[in-house]
Amino acid sequence: MNKDIKKYLLLILISSILILIAVIFFTNYVTYSVLGLLLLILISSYLINKKHSLLIEQINNNKILENEIEQLKLKRIKEVENNSEHKNSTLIATIKKEFRSKNLKTEKEILKYLINLLEGVQGVYFTPNNDHEQTLQLQASFAIGNDFDHRTFLQTEGFIGQAIINKNIMFIDDLPQDYTTILSGLGKSSPSSLIIIPIFFENSIFAIVEIALFNNITDETKLIVKEIPYLILESLSPKSKENENK
Predict the structure, then answer these.
(1) How many structural domains compose the chain?
(2) pLDDT digits (tens, 9 = 90+) for 24-43
C-alpha cells in the first residue's frame, strides 16, 4: 500500500478513536459513539479507495505516456534508418556512375582511383602469377619505394593470405608501426589502418588490392569498399573483356 495512504488511514483512525473517547466521556452514549466510529471508518474507507483509484489511474496514464514516447522513439529511429539507407544508396549509385564514366581499364588506373576515393596514402594491386602457382604478382603500386621486396607474394602469406583464405575483405585499425612505411616528398611515415580486398572470379582469386590509410576506417568507407570487387570485375574480368570485343 502507498505510504501516503497508510499515513492517511492512521490519521483517520486516530481521529476516530479520539472522537469516540470524547463522545463516551461527555455523553456516555456508547451506541452513538460506535455508530459515529463506523461512519468515520466508512468515510475513511471511501476516501482511501478514491485515492487508490486516482493513484491507479495516474499509473495507467504514465504507462500510456511511456508507451507513446517509446513509439515516437521507434518511429524516429526508423526515420533515421530510412534516411541513412537512402543516403547510402545514393552514395553507392554516385560512385558506380563515376567509376563507369572514367572507363578505367588498367590495374594502375583503378588503384589510383581507389586511393583517391578512399583517401588512402599507399596501395598495391596483385594478381595471380601464371608462371608460379600459389603466388601473386605486383601489377600496380602507389607510394611504394623502388626497394619494395614483395614484387611477388605467396597467396598464404600475411594479411593478404588471411583475406584470400577467408574470402573476406579485411579492415585493420591500429596497424603496427613497422608494418609499412609511406614514402612521400615529406619523408617517411607509418599508416594507422589497412584495407585488404580479395577479388574472386568464378571461385578463384582474380586480384587483391591493399590500401593503407592514416585515418581510422569509417562505416562509410566500409560501405564503399564492399562495392569495389564488383566494380573491378566489371572493368577487368574476362567476361567484361569478351563483352567489349563483341
Answers:
(1) 2
(2) 555 555 555 565 666 666 66
